[in-house]
Amino acid sequence: MSALEVTFVTADRTVWTGQASQVVVPAIDGSMGILPQMQPTLAILGDGVVRIHDLDGHVDERSVSGGFVSVDSDVVTIGVDDAEAQAPHADRI
Hints:
The chain has 93 residues and is mainly beta. The chain has strands spanning 4-9, 14-27, 30-34, 41-54, 59-72, 75-79, 83-85. It comes from Brachybacterium paraconglomeratum.
C-alpha cells in the first residue's frame, strides 16, 4: 500500500508528521483531497479544517486560516500560521 509522507507545520512548531493514507485541505477554491500518487500540486489554503487520515484509520483535524499545501512524489507539506485542534466527532453538536 502506498502512503503519503506528511509534514504539517506552523510558524513555530510541527503540528503533525508521519505517514498518512489521505489528507484533506481547505484550498481557497474548495476542499481538496490528497491521495498517494497524486500529480504535483501547490495550492493556497483558505479557512477550514485540515484532516489527516493516518495508516491506522485515525483522523487528526485542525482548524486553519490560510497557508499553503505542496504535494510532490507522495510528500505532502502543509504550512500555516496557526492550527487549532478540533473536538472529536462524538463531542461535536
